[in-house]
Design goal:
Blueprint (H helix, E strand, L loop, with lengths): L2 H5 L38 H9 L3 H23 L2 H17 L11 H18 L7 H10 L6 H20 L2 H12 L4 H8 L3 H20 L3
Helix pairs in contact: 2-3, 3-4, 3-5, 3-8, 4-5, 5-9, 6-7, 7-10, 8-10, 9-10
Amino acid sequence: MSPSLLSGLAGTPFRRWTGVLRLNPAPLNPALPGRRLARDHAAASDEVLIGWSAGGDRLAFNMLAGRHLPRLHALAARITGSAAEAEEIAQEALLRAWQQAARFDPGRARFGTWLYRIATNLAIDHTRRRPAVATAAAEALLETLADPAATPEEALALRQQMRALQAALETLPERQRAALALAHDQGLSGAETAAILETSERAVEGLLHRARRFLAARLAALG
């Protein structure tokens, strides 16, 4: 991930809104007028942090961003196939979460489910607005899988297989690609994936089954 992705969120979550929002890091301590109650941001749950964020606590939101930014980037990169677009999507998802913090209802969903739904929908929209998916994700994956001890022939075979896999992924419908990213890359349960995609667990199973069958057939065709 590019260092700019994290540095862009350093300090205040989104500087262009700081002049509009009255950022209030903590409530006043009634026992000590003029002082504020200390908040343990590191120990707080996501749901507590987003609640504090809704009240203007930028430190709480920065903590949330640090926790979720790497996974948001990985999710967006898998769906779009583009590291550059993944950076944009991850930051846009966090921006929307900051703007809509007051709307989050912990009784309806976990914070992670709510946030990843935002990112997934953004990634799918980005993918639909262009004709083809970039191959940056496959090239990065290829580098991590490369065996330094492999023979030139083995290395060539691996590159061919990875390119074929990426080409197959590019032709998958966006929701099948999103289901793979959530269930496999992110390791989410069927229920969590269904909640993010706003569908049923049975529908998620169908998406994954069709995606796996298609990818297996394309790889088998390589011989």
